[in-house]
Amino acid sequence: MCDTAIQDLYAEEFANCFGCGRNNQHGLQLKSHWQGDECICRHTPKSHYTGGVPGFLYGGMIASLIDCHGAATAAAAKSRESGEPISRFVTASLNVDFVKPTPIGIELEIRGKATEIKNRKVTVALQLFAGETLCATGKMILVQLKN
Ligand SMILES: CCCCC/C=C\C/C=C\C/C=C\C/C=C\CCCC(=O)SCCNC(=O)CCNC(=O)[C@H](O)C(C)(C)COP(=O)(O)OP(=O)(O)OC[C@H]1O[C@@H](n2cnc3c(N)ncnc32)[C@H](O)[C@@H]1OP(=O)(O)O
What we know:
Blueprint: E1 32-35, E2 38-43, H1 59-82, E3 89-98, E4 108-118, E5 121-130, E6 133-144
Antiparallel strand pairs: 1-2, 2-4, 3-6, 4-5, 5-6
Bound molecules: ligand 3IX.
């Protein structure tokens, strides 16, 4: 696994996101790492992010985890393809399927893979696991910010 998180390579002005900005002291500060041919993020949500049924995670938080990790996956995949430094991608489209209730209290693992890279547009497929259980999947389209 690459030691440096993708989010730690974002330019300073793009490092303030609630989900993954290293400079956002009130945010989740998610970290994503390239491993093999995919990108991995691990996070244990706090219990107050419940969706109303104690012990289970709010769907909006699930979408947020997928969203921010998808952006990191797109940035890493594009950088690996082009040989250029990590750049910043924003979400143009986010589709989440909630497959099983997601438990709170154990570490979640989100796995992302780029399925298509076309100029500034990257399509990413994601899976969110709680242990061995696939709880949610995501499909995203991300667009690289213009310089
Ligand atoms: C991430 C930090 C950002 C900090 C802000 C700093 C500077 C501001 C600079 C730019 C503003 C950018 C982002 C907005 C600000 C904050 C977002 C915070 C981060 C998030 O919270 S993130 C979740 C919310 N996110 C958004 O707030 C995005 C709103 N949106 C847009 O800002 C534009 O919509 C954008 C940039 C996505 C694209 O605009 P664009 O002009 O750069 O590019 P363009 O439209 O040419 O698309 C290029 C190729 O993507 C295809 N494409 C586009 N949209 C598609 C879709 N929906 N489905 C399928 N394909 C799509 C086209 O078809 C074309 O493909 P092709 O080349 O093959 O034709």
